[in-house]
Design goal:
The complex is a heterodimer of chains A (190) and B (111). With 190 residues, chain A is α+β, with helices and mostly antiparallel strands. Helices cover 40% and strands 15% of the residues of chain A. In chain B, α1 packs antiparallel against α2. Chain B: It holds the Pfam family DUF6092.
Chain lengths: 190, 111
């Protein structure tokens, strides 16, 4: 299988991490991957805040109820709101948040690619995280990518549900007369 | 005799921060996260106090409360989820009764 596709299929959200520290070079590799993530208009309106300081990580976890794991490092993806406004984006513009997702996905894959475990956390107090990370005025923290070495045992995934294939998630839009298979699909849905 | 102190200031502060920030995040989160956040807080409190807890309480803390996965939500298997929580509530209530109201019993109402 193609190594990129294999990485996509084998990546998991890691919610239990060991005490083993993460090397600075590994954090930088994840940050560099984030810089290569697709960015609307190639504008790069997002900023990253990284830390591997155990005391800061401890406090960050205290104000982040969604942070189940105890990460050895964390990268917080922020939107530089003044910069976004300067480019003409409204604060609620979906594009800004789509980019947070693509950056996070790229970082998660990068971490997996270099043998780290990673997990995204979006459940945290924006106000508190802004203080803990000493964010500059106007930077809104949107997602924390936790990094560490996966522990042997992981909690079960949230809300087990039937495994969905891409077919379950996809509809094709085509032109021309429906063939037999499409007609049958249509009849079943009707 | 005063009950033993089982939580230090740092631990209490950590839990306080979790509860306050969870209240804020819960405003924007799915309702099913509510019990999960509360159970996470309970699990963390249990882990904090267990080393200094009295023997009877240690048994309770080592029971089903500590075995709830931190990712459990009442999305699917709602009945089993509720049954599990009810079981934990009963076990806690049993411990509370023994500890604070020993000898509690029922009697037949005099006719």
């Amino acid at each position: 299988m193609n190594p990129v596709l294999r990485a996509i299929r084998t990546r998991r959200v890691v919610r239990t991490m060991s005490d083993q520290p993460v090397a600075r070079e590994q954090i930088e590799a994840v940050l560099d991957a984030g810089r290569y993530a697709p960015s609307a208009g190639n504008r790069h309106l997002h900023r990253f805040v990284a830390t591997s300081d155990p005391a800061i990580l401890r406090v960050l976890r205290m104000v982040s109820p969604g942070m189940i794991q105890r990460p050895a490092a964390a990268v917080t993806i922020c939107i530089d709101q003044p910069l976004a406004v300067e480019y003409g984006f409204a604060r609620t513009s979906p594009g800004l948040y789509v980019d947070v997702g693509t950056i996070a996905a790229t970082m998660l894959l990068a971490a997996h690619g270099i043998g780290l475990g990673a997990g995204p956390v979006s459940s945290f107090s924006r106000a508190a995280v802004g203080v803990v990370l000493r964010l500059p005025e106007g930077w809104s923290p949107e997602l924390v990518v936790c990094l560490g070495h996966p522990a042997t045992e992981q909690p079960p995934p949230m809300g087990r549900r039937p495994s969905l294939s891409w077919r379950d998630l996809t509809r094709w839009v085509v032109r021309g007369p429906a063939d037999e298979e499409q007609r049958a699909d249509h009849d079943r849905e009707a | 005799m005063a009950p033993p102190l089982v939580l230090d200031e740092d631990q209490a502060l950590e839990l306080l921060a979790y509860l306050v920030t969870a209240a804020r995040t819960q405003v924007d989160e799915a309702a099913e996260y509510g019990p999960m956040r509360l159970l996470t807080a309970a699990g963390r409190l249990a882990a904090m106090i267990r080393p200094r807890a009295s023997e009877g309480l240690q048994d309770v803390l080592a029971g089903p409360l500590g075995s709830v996965p931190p990712t459990a939500v009442p999305r699917t298997g709602r009945e089993a989820y509720v049954a599990r929580l009810d079981g934990i509530c009963r076990e806690l209530a049993e411990h509370l009764s023994i500890r604070f109201a020993p000898g509690c019993r029922t009697t037949v109402t005099p006719g």
